[in-house]
Specification:
single chain, 108 residues, mainly alpha, 2 domains, 4 helices, CASP C-terminal domain-containing protein, CASP_C
Length: 108
């Protein structure tokens, strides 16, 4: 009887040690995963700020709102030929290849 109790106690001790080791391993894995999650969150936030930062600032900046209103007012004052000229020149000057083509056409 005593031998059976001792063997059960020893088996319970081994199982408890194994469970404690498993809990320690899982705790470490949880810490690692949480750390990785925090790092990914900060990377994601930095990328989001980099991607959408200017757009966000433009929506809350009173100076940019004023600038947009003034630009719209100046555009409204232009005649149709001037608007056409502005649109074409903006299109040509906004693209690198178009600027290069315009320069080559002007020099030949």
């Amino acid at each position: 009887m005593m031998r059976t109790l001792l063997s059960q106690r020893e088996r319970a001790r081994r199982e408890a040690e194994a469970a404690a080791a498993e809990a320690g391993r899982l705790r470490e894995q949880l810490r690692s995963t949480q750390s990785k999650g925090r790092q990914l969150h900060s990377d994601n936030l930095a990328l989001y700020e980099k991607t959408y930062g200017r757009e966000y600032e433009a929506t809350i900046s009173p100076f940019s709102a004023f600038q947009r209103r003034e630009r719209a007012a100046r555009l409204a004052e232009l005649s149709p030929p001037e608007k056409l000229l502005l649109a074409v020149s903006s299109l040509l000057l906004s693209h690198r290849r178009a600027r290069r083509g315009l320069l080559e056409a002007a020099t030949t």
